[in-house]
Design brief:
The complex is a heterodimer. By secondary structure, chain A is mainly α. Chain A has one domain: Orthogonal Bundle (ABC transporter involved in vitamin B12 uptake, BtuC). Helix content of chain A is about 70%, strand content about 0%. In chain A, a hairpin with a 2-residue loop joins strand 1 and strand 2. In chain A, helix 1 packs antiparallel against helix 11 and helix 2 runs antiparallel to helix 3. Chain B folds into two domains: about 200 residues, Rossmann fold; about 160 residues, Rossmann fold (3-Layer(aba) Sandwich). Chain B has 16 helices and 13 strands. In chain B, strand 1, helix 2 and strand 2 form a beta-alpha-beta unit. The radius of gyration of chain B is 24 Å and the shape is elongated. About 0% of the residues of chain B have low confidence. Classes of the chains: A mainly alpha, B alpha/beta.
């Protein structure tokens, strides 16, 4: 039975981290209807900034983590200001193409540093012994990852539901022109959405980097890996990202644990989430929690 | 007076021209080309590899190993993109290269026909056995991935205590990863005393708990990897967390992890930290954590050209030096034989590197031997294991017994 529960715990852990990595995509989409293809590079940048601060500059890891989130907050805000602000009102496909180009530019910049072609790992700052209960174990890194995920997601959910700026962001997402007509600054909302996406990406980068080690290819791949999460959950739903992240994490782990290597199957852990995704989209084309918009003509 | 000055100037010019033209006539330039991933995917291996090649050719030119002749090797970044590799290769051909140094499995397989058409010897950084199929011009620097996996399986079979060892393979989902699987299966059919329980193709996994638990439920005791360091690092970290990692080779009820060339080295230790302890790895290169006269030369070369410690100690730096050494040796032998240094004669020189003419560079665990029927360079593979945070040699370098049987 511990086998079953271990897989459940691992699925939830993986799913939570997927949700955190997907959060930035949701935030940008929620406010601007744009899929950000440079998200993986920002995830990697967050991890490398933390590493640089803690290892090269000797800043304690906890403060490096916080500082990295603050730096990527302003970095992503600057990216929006420099590259995307002028595209407000332009076709969405143009903005998406800019994010693809932006990803290439960030790739190039990171490749100019040792982080682009070398491997690193964070210094050990959490207990190495895992927490075990009834044959089920979870590492401190994973536990901290889950806690950070839920704190960030809880905070952002509250922000969008209760705060004036959060409500403004939702309004902009619904209708930019109507929002402008009631005095909401659409450019500021876009900037803030990117900034928050940068902040969450840094958190995701640090947690993923602590699990996999700091390898640029591995880290920036997560910007794409989590796309099924936001599509399954609904592109504009934070709750959807959490639920879908955990569903995908559980499907991966259960497929790997019970199907792979049996009945002549292998690699189902990678394939099953996509099969489930297609089935769900067949019945709910906007994802599990996506908003089904009805336009009056 | 004016005419005297003019004559003096003319004389100086004539002398200078005569001097420079005589120097030029004495020193030939041999052009080589290299295309690899200095940036982009796998650049953690490609970057130090390029540095090794660049440094060794500089060393050859500066120390006049080829007399007044020099090697001009153009090294270009292809970012692991086969179309860019092809373009680079074609441009090198236009430049008149006499030998080509390639990198990835994908591009080596993709350009195999071009190499045949151009009849140019190629040394790739990919040790995929399939590179040699239907090819006459690709020369693997060291024993293939198939040899590496089979030799690890042989090591398991010889050192496992208590019945038949249960083994799983953990491979990259590509030709690079899948290639050696069928050779391991053939070795088992040929009598290698292991039970191949499962072949796992990994994805971009954040957590391998389910896979490791599944393997444990099937009583797998050894996982042999053919991939790159990052997925191995994640797997062995998970195994450490779950308390599944063997603390010594073959510890009962635990898993011993082993892997081929690109799974190991200092990068694995950098990524996995203490979880890399007791990881078994094989390659055909000497490594600097096992000090000796040979590795001292590698470190001296890195120091000479101002490389940082990380590059200097990388086995990929050694691999980059090695292909440059082989190319240089082929050129040196062609010159010594009084032959023109061209594609055909270098191909001939490589095919003649065997028996008493085998070449022993300081970077490898055995001599480089090529012939018309054997285009795999270093046959001897050294097994290393992580002890106290560094790779240490395990016994002497070995040659795969079962690969000979199944070839």
């Amino acid at each position: 039975m511990s086998y079953f529960f271990q897989i459940v715990v691992s699925g939830i852990v993986v799913g939570s981290i997927y949700a955190l990595a997907a959060l930035g995509l949701v935030l940008v989409y929620k406010s601007s209807r744009v899929a950000n293809f440079a998200h993986g590079q920002i995830i990697a940048a967050g991890a490398f900034i933390t590493y640089y601060l803690s290892v090269s500059l000797g800043v304690p890891i906890f403060f490096s983590f916080l500082a990295s989130m603050i730096i990527t907050f302003f970095l992503a805000m600057s990216v929006e200001r420099i590259f995307l602000r002028k595209l407000i009102g332009e076709p969405i496909i143009s903005v998406i193409m800019v994010t693809i180009g932006l990803g290439s530019i960030l790739d190039g910049l990171i490749y100019l540093t040792p982080f682009g072609s070398e491997n690193f790992s964070f210094p050990a700052f959490l207990p190495q012994e895992p927490l075990s209960l009834g044959g089920v174990s979870i590492s401190w890194t994973q536990l901290v990852g889950v806690i950070v995920t839920f704190i960030l997601i809880g905070g952002l959910s509250w922000f969008f539901k209760k705060s004036t700026i959060g409500i403004s962001m939702r309004a902009v997402s619904d209708d930019q022109f109507a929002s402008m007509s009631v005095g909401i600054s659409v450019p500021k909302v876009f900037g803030l959405a990117w900034a928050l996406a940068g902040l969450s990406a840094a958190a995701a980068g640090c947690i993923i980097g602590n699990i996999t080690g700091l390898n640029f290819d591995t880290l920036h791949a997560f910007g794409i890996i989590v796309f099924p999460v936001i599509i399954l959950g609904g592109l504009d739903s934070i709750l959807g990202a959490v639920v879908a992240g955990i569903i995908i994490g559980l499907i991966q782990q259960f497929s790997s644990g019970y199907l792979d290597g049996n009945f002549g199957l292998k690699g189902t852990g990678d394939v099953m989430p996509y099969i489930i995704l297609v089935v769900v989209l067949f019945f709910k084309p906007h994802g599990l929690f996506g908003i089904h918009e009805i336009e009056r003509v | 007076m004016k005419s005297k000055n003019f004559l003096t100037a003319l004389l100086i010019l004539v002398v200078m021209f005569a001097f420079t033209s005589s120097v030029y006539a004495g020193g030939k330039v041999y052009k080589l080309g290299m295309s690899l991933a200095i940036t982009g995917p796998t650049s953690d291996a490609g970057n130090p590899y390029a540095k090794g090649t660049e440094d060794y050719f500089k060393f050859v030119n500066e120390t006049k190993i080829l007399g007044d002749d020099t090697i001009e090797c153009t090294i270009r970044d292809d970012q692991y993109k086969t179309d860019v590799t092809k373009r680079n290769f074609e441009e090198y051909l236009d430049d008149g290269i006499v030998m080509y140094l390639n990198y990835s499995t994908g591009s080596t397989l993709g350009l195999k026909r071009d190499f045949e058409e151009e009849q140019i010897a190629v040394l790739p950084a990919s040790y995929h056995a399939g590179n040699l199929d239907d090819s006459n011009y690709i020369f693997l620097p060291i024993a293939s991935y198939s040899d590496q996996l089979v030799i690890l399986a042989e090591y398991v079979a010889k050192n496992h205590k208590g019945g038949k060892a249960k083994v799983a393979l953990f491979v990259h989902p590509s030709a690079f990863g899948r290639g050696p699987v069928s050779d391991v299966e053939k070795a088992v059919v040929a009598g290698l005393n292991i039970e191949l329980v499962e072949v796992v193709e990994h994805g971009k996994d954040l957590d391998n708990t389910a896979m490791l638990k599944r393997l444990m439920s099937k009583k797998v005791q050894y996982v042999i990897s053919q991939t790159v360091q990052s997925p191995v690092a994640t797997m062995i970290k998970d195994s450490q967390r779950l308390g599944l990692t063997a603390s010594s080779f073959g510890e009962a009820g635990k898993i011993t992890f082993l892997g081929a060339h690109y799974t190991g080295g200092n990068d694995l230790i950098a990524l996995a930290g203490t979880a890399a302890e007791n990881y078994f790895w094989t390659t055909g290169f000497n490594i600097t954590s096992v000090p000796g006269e040979k590795t001292t030369k590698q470190l001296a070369l890195a120091k000479l050209f101002g490389r940082d410690e990380k590059a200097a100690n990388s086995h990929n730096y050694a691999a980059g030096i090695m292909v440059a050494q082989v190319a240089t040796e082929a050129i040196r032998r062609a010159k010594a034989a009084g032959l023109e240094v061209n594609k055909a004669n270098l191909y001939k020189m490589l095919n003649g590197m065997n028996g008493a003419n085998a070449y022993s560079p300081y970077t490898t665990s055995g001599p480089v031997t090529y012939s018309k029927t054997d285009r795999m360079g270093v046959d001897l593979l050294q097994i290393y294991s992580v002890q106290g945070g560094v790779f240490k040699a395990v016994g002497e370098a070995l040659e795969s017994e079962y690969m000979k049987k199944i070839k």
